[in-house]
Design brief:
The complex is a heterodimer of chains A (172) and B (259).
Chain A: H1 3-22, H2 35-38, E1 41-46, E2 52-56, H3 65-79, E3 85-89, H4 102-111, E4 113-114, E5 142-146, E6 154-159, E7 165-169
Chain B: H1 3-10, H2 13-33, H3 42-70, H4 76-81, H5 92-95, H6 101-122, H7 128-156, H8 160-173, H9 185-192, H10 199-216, H11 239-247, H12 249-253
Helix pairs in contact in B: 2-3, 2-9, 3-7, 6-7, 6-8, 6-10
The chains are: A alpha/beta (172), B mainly alpha (259).
Chain lengths: 172, 259
């Protein structure tokens, strides 16, 4: 094996390790989702494992989970021996619920939180014709109770078929 | 020209412009937070608290940027907690007391609809940092407008009592909207730099949006007041001082306290 390819393979090894570790950092407010499921890790960069840069993006500007997540990432990587980690907050382009991974959508639905139904760019949203399905009985007969739920990223809905109230992960 | 105004104009207009945006979000967020635990229903308590959180988050991003522009090493916290009323540059509208729930929602609609149009324009402005903050804030502000507009419609087109209350709130708050579109030297300098949007276009879009909500809410738009308040120049109504006394108490009593 040439020196160059050895360096390359060492690099991809620690990058993979960082991504695996980040996949273990949970959103403190919706702990079934990792920060990778949420789509808030923008990049992992660095010349070596001792000069690491991780780009994170906030979901909402005032979300209190943002700082908890930042600290969790630092601690997680420090424990795994990554000593010099620079965490960068990236605002542009702004985070969108479109960035939730398909796995995240399935996890949310199984947990009882309706995942965002449509792409933000879907023109139907302008007409307000968004059918949110009840995560319990899957009925489309649901109604909005409040645009704001238990966390900034959720709205409050109720199902008129099975009468269960539920959280809906908003399209943003 | 008075010495105070001369001093204002000698300062960096970009810093003042960013502080206006930051303080408007901060003060409105703090006002809304006064509702926590007091709103008419749990859903509305959560709704108002969530909007407050978004606004304070936007204020943090903007104040951090203002601190960098100022170049004196002041952090977002120092700017929020250690300035006195005369150094706050928020719009006078947002420091007005909450009144009843309807009054708060009328104030919210007037302010959020303004922020919506402003952020929409700023997201493509010549200041890259401001543009990215505006793009982020815009997503959140859309929900603030939807929430406040839907409540103004429900209350305006509701009972005789609710209609009378929101109509009276509208009349009380309307004179403060003149300031929103009264551009001064700071905004003119920022418009010339390709940052601040054209005020006339902004006003037309805001006006059309507000008219549509008022029509649905069966409310009557009050006559415009020729006098602009000057909160964005640091001249405030008496209410701001009382509010800051509460907001800044901890940092004044225990300087540098953290948790």
């Amino acid at each position: 094996m040439s020196v160059a390819s050895q360096v390359e393979s060492a690099q991809s090894n620690w990058q993979e390790e960082v991504w695996r570790l980040l996949g273990e950092v949970k959103d403190p407010e919706i702990p079934l989702l990792s920060i990778i499921d949420l789509g808030i890790v923008r990049y992992v960069r660095g010349a070596s494992r001792d000069a690491l840069h991780v780009g994170l993006t906030p979901t909402y500007s005032g979300c209190p989970a943002t700082e908890v997540i930042r600290n969790s990432v630092e601690q997680k990587l420090a424990r795994a021996g990554f000593r010099e980690v620079v965490i960068e907050t990236i605002l542009a382009p702004p985070w969108s619920s479109d960035w939730l991974t398909p796995a995240a959508r399935l996890k949310l639905a199984a947990y009882g939180i309706a995942p965002p139904v449509e792409a933000v760019s879907n023109p139907k949203r302008l007409l307000g014709a968004v059918a949110v399905l009840c995560p319990r009985c899957h009925s489309p007969a649901t109604r909005l109770i409040s645009e704001f739920g238990s966390t900034p990223c959720k709205a409050h809905y109720a199902c008129t078929a099975c009468l269960e109230p539920f959280d809906y992960f908003k399209c943003i | 020209m008075s010495a105070a105004i001369a001093q204002v104009l000698s300062e960096d207009p970009r810093l003042r412009y960013v502080l206006r945006l930051a303080d408007t979000s901060l003060i409105l967020g703090q006002r809304l937070a006064e509702w926590v635990g007091h709103a008419p229903a749990l859903e509305e308590d959560l709704g108002l608290a969530n909007i407050a959180l978004d606004l304070i988050g936007q204020a943090r991003l903007l104040l951090s940027y203002a601190g960098e522009l100022e170049g004196r090493g002041r952090s977002e916290d120092e700017l929020a907690f250690l300035r006195d009323a005369g150094q706050f540059l928020n719009l006078t509208l947002v420091e007005q007391p909450n009144g009843d729930f309807g009054h708060t929602l009328v104030r919210q609609l007037l302010a959020s609809a303004f922020q919506l149009e402003l952020y929409e324009a700023l997201q493509t402005c010549a200041d890259a940092r401001l543009a990215e903050i505006a793009a982020k804030a815009l997503q959140e502000t859309r929900y603030h407008v939807r929430y406040s507009a839907s409540w103004v419609v429900r209350l305006g087109d509701g009972t005789a009592e609710s209609h009378a209350r929101v109509q009276s709130a509208l009349e009380e708050l309307w004179p403060f909207t003149t300031e929103l579109f009264a551009a001064d030297a700071v905004e003119e300098a920022m418009a010339a730099a390709g940052i601040a949007p054209d005020v006339a276009a902004l006003q037309a879009r805001w006006s059309a949006r507000i008219d549509a909500v008022l029509a649905e809410a069966t409310l009557v738009r009050p006559a415009d007041s020729p006098f602009p308040w000057h909160g964005k120049r640091g001249v405030h109504t008496e209410h701001l001082g009382y509010m800051l006394a509460e907001m800044q108490f901890l940092q004044r009593a225990y300087p540098g306290a953290e948790w």
